[in-house]
From TrEMBL:
One of its GO terms (molecular function) is transferase activity. Gene3D superfamilies: 3.30.70.3290, Malonyl-Coenzyme A Acyl Carrier Protein, domain 2. InterPro entries: Ac_transferase_dom_sf (IPR001227), Acyl_transferase_dom (IPR014043), Acyl_Trfase/lysoPLipase (IPR016035), Omega3_polyunsat_FA_synth-like (IPR014181), PKS-FAS_Synthase (IPR052568). It comes from Shewanella sediminis (strain HAW-EB3). Residues 378-704 form the Malonyl-CoA:ACP transacylase (MAT) domain. It comes from the Bacteria. This is Omega-3 polyunsaturated fatty acid synthase PfaB.
């Protein structure tokens, strides 16, 4: 039921009405898709709009609030007056849709929203008006107005997360700007000032706050008041201030797949079946390009259904990815031409897998099926995090970020002040402890994403160096991994023992306080470990820290390391980072490391994951036989931490135990690169793992688009027949389809009916 709003005569009356309000407004705000006209969705001849509403705004649809409460629809023409009329209608128990051509809000009393289990995107707590003459500086005007709004909202000025001063906008621009800021609150997105950032930096990232601190914005709109009298005391400037806080709802996740990021999955038991399915998709794309979104959704629904019953899972799967229909047709053609070679039995001539730069992927030797049990999560060590990492991920997985915020201090977990600093040089210069925290945080996030969002469970887990700590923190073993954040920042183990002043090294070298500071460095060198070990006795303060395929890392006194490299006639790449992990002096701290990581475990531990430590040789630890306890975990980390890391041996050990598919969970893809080199070296030199299949899957890559890299990873896992759900992809496509249909329905309705102003009551203020 749509009723006109009560008229408001002038901006002056608005000022009088709003300033009198001293109590918080407590108004719930929902951002609506711009084309959506709720009054139209209630008419009997548009049931499809109700269906679209159920997809786009499920809380509102299930509450059936539109069927029981009077709806007032207002089209913005005088923003200040429109808002006052809106507040009056809400006080009368009504709900209000206020909109422009590009933005739309649904507003209601917060109690009504709570009673109907509607999660608002934001809460309007205060709105105040202030007028003044030009004798008053504009900043003083906005400060005074904002102070009154804060007083009305019962908030202190230091509770405001961000302040926005928006001068000289017309009513439509004002409303659109306010809606944009509400969307930022609801999507937890912080936008950077374009003038302050470099060309390669992210334009936005997750809006971090201190732990348990809500996001609150103060919005100040200032305008000149036209047509004033000649009186010297007349007011000629006005300000309206809002205090808006985040709500419990989120802007719907962006769809991972859309018209610019296409994906199809082709499943069959043989080559002929795969080719036939490719032909079907090609035909549909050619004859019905307008149904692209529906075709992709139906394709994934079919895939999901076929995998709900393990007996119905096809032997092979192709994932096709492209950026447009034209590009997808090319991907299908290329895949069809290459498929016979990939499936050929002549492995010496043809590879068993095929991938394209766009992300299309097929393997004739699936390695991750339930019968294979060969999937491992691999966790990288310190130093892989990079500036602006994961900057867009929150827009696609808002519920995941919300979960992480409830669990602990997300800002500290990501070391956000350094990772998202406007100066990109800050991240590489982070201290060892801060790098360790951010590394574990990035691994924890990506693990939760795969496990909670896509239902992917590994059979094995292993870590590179401090990646072992990430492994225990991310896979449901430690009860409170967030408790280690502050300890890592302050404990002498990380601040001074094996980093900083290197007290553990000074003790091992028997240096006194009067001896000079140690100049420490580490170098990556292309060399077999044996060649380095043979020379180490000549350089007692240089150490073989890491063995990783065809390269090694030496660390220690910079002078002795450079002398060792010179004697080997090798060039080394300096890391320029001070850490004595994996060197003999670290053994001085073995007990402290063990104590540091002796953390309480979860009451219920994972029984289906085998954990492989670099220090455990060719054995695994799992809870299936009660092998997990806090002491076992702590000792394994300490042993790895304080001894040379032989990553090559760790990979070989994992392969012998059944690992075939290595999925890297962390920032960038350094472990995947190393494992690929180890596998290549084995094939060329007849190494230990020559007979073991091996494939790597990076979930993130520095310099790449976060979502595109994730989608490529999912495509690989699907082709390797790893059990997973495509539901997040399907749900995203459902929203894309509903929004597309809504736009078409609204346009058609406008063309067939009277002007929209009859429904939105344009000018009725």
């Amino acid at each position: 039921m749509v009723k006109p709003t009560p008229p408001v005569n002038s901006a002056a009356s608005v000022s009088d009405q709003v300033i009198k309000s001293e109590m918080p407004l407590r108004i719930a705000l929902l951002v609506l898709p711009a084309p959506l006209n709720l009054s139209m969705s209630l008419t009997a001849d548009t049931p499809e709009m109700a269906k679209q509403l159920s997809v786009l705004l499920p809380d509102l649809h299930s509450a059936k609030l539109l069927e029981t409460t009077e709806l007032v629809s207002i089209k913005v023409d005088d923003f200040e007056a429109n808002l006052t009329a809106t507040i009056e209608s809400i006080e009368q128990g009504k709900i209000v849709q206020i909109s422009t051509e590009t933005s739309s809000l649904l507003m209601m009393h917060s109690l009504k929203a709570a009673q109907n289990r509607i999660h608002p995107h934001a809460q309007l707590a205060a709105m105040q008006m202030q007028s003044a003459s030009t004798a008053l500086v504009e900043k003083s005007l906005t400060d005074t107005c904002m102070h009154k709004a804060l007083s009305q909202a019962k908030r202190k000025s230091d509770s405001v997360s961000k302040r926005f001063d928006l001068p000289q906008l017309n009513s439509t621009e004002q409303f659109d700007a306010v809606c944009t800021l509400i969307k930022d609150l609801a999507s937890r997105t912080h936008h950077r000032d374009a003038a302050s950032m470099g060309p390669k930096q992210a334009t936005s990232h997750y809006w971090f706050t201190d732990h348990h601190q809500a996001r609150v914005v103060a919005i100040n709109l200032t305008n000149s008041i036209k047509d004033q009298s000649d009186s010297a005391h007349s007011a000629d400037k006005s300000c309206i201030s809002f205090i808006v806080s985040q709500g419990t709802g989120f802007i719907a996740p962006k769809s991972i797949i859309d018209t610019k990021r296409l994906q199809f999955v082709v499943c069959a038991d043989n080559q002929a079946g795969l080719l036939a399915e490719l032909t079907k998709i090609k035909s549909k794309l050619t004859t019905e390009p307008g149904l692209l979104l529906t075709q992709m959704r139906d394709n994934l629904v079919s895939y999901e259904k076929s995998h709900s019953d393990t007996a119905g899972i096809s032997r092979y799967a192709i994932t096709l990815q492209a950026s447009s229909i034209e590009a997808m047709l090319q991907e299908i053609t290329a895949m069809g031409e290459t498929l016979p070679n990939v499936m050929s039995d002549n492995s010496l001539t043809h590879s068993s897998q095929y991938r394209t730069p766009a992300g299309s992927y097929f393997t004739a030797e699936p390695l991750g099926g339930a019968d294979q049990s060969g999937l491992a999560f691999v966790y990288p060590g310190v130093g892989t995090v990079y500036s602006d990492m994961f900057s867009q991920l929150h827009r696609y997985f808002p519920s995941l970020y919300s979960q992480l915020e409830r669990e602990g201090d997300l800002k500290s977990m990501f070391q956000a002040d350094a990772i998202y600093h406007l100066d990109p040089k800050v991240t590489p210069a982070m201290q060892l402890g801060d790098l360790a925290i951010a590394g574990v945080g990035s691994s924890y996030l990506l693990t939760q994403l795969l496990v909670k969002q896509f239902n992917i469970t590994p059979n094995f887990a292993l870590g590179y160096s401090m990646g072992e700590a990430s492994m225990w923190a991310s896979l449901g073993v430690w009860n409170a991994p967030h408790a280690l954040i502050e300890k890592t920042k302050t404990d002498p183990l990380f601040t001074s023992a094996i980093s900083g002043k290197l007290t553990a090294v000074r003790k091992a070298w028997q240096l006194t306080n009067s001896d000079a500071d140690i100049v420490w460095n580490s170098f990556v060198v292309r060399s077999p470990a044996a060649s380095i070990k043979a020379l180490l006795p000549e350089f007692p303060h240089a150490y073989l820290a890491i063995v990783q395929g065809d390269t090694c890392v030496i660390a220690g006194c910079e002078t002795q390391c450079r002398e060792l490299l010179a004697q080997m006639k090798k060039r080394g790449i300096a890391a320029n980072r001070v850490t004595a992990m994996h060197t003999t002096p670290a053994m001085e701290e073995h007990g402290n490391v063990e104590q540091f990581y002796n953390q309480p475990l979860e009451e219920t531990l994972p029984n289906d994951i085998k954990f492989i430590s670099a220090a455990s040789g060719e054995s695994t630890v799992s809870n299936a036989n009660g092998g997990l306890d806090s002491q076992v975990v702590a000792r394994s980390i300490a042993d790895t931490f304080c001894n040379t890391l032989d990553f090559t041996a760790l990979v070989h050990s994992a392969q012998k135990q059944g690992v075939k598919l290595f999925v890297e969970l962390g920032a960038d893809r350094q472990n995947c690169t190393l494992i690929d080199k180890i596998a290549k070296q084995d094939r060329q030199c007849g190494g230990e793992s020559t007979d073991f299949p091996c494939c790597t899957v990076p979930v993130n890559a520095k310099g790449g688009d976060d979502i595109t890299t994730l989608l490529k990873a999912l495509g690989q896992l699907i082709s390797h027949r790893v059990p997973l759900t495509a539901q997040p992809l399907i749900e995203g496509l459902n929203r894309e389809i509903a929004l597309s249909q809504l736009q078409k329905t609204t346009t058609t309705k406008q063309l067939k009916s009277e002007p929209m102003s009859n429904l939105t009551l344009q000018g009725e203020v």
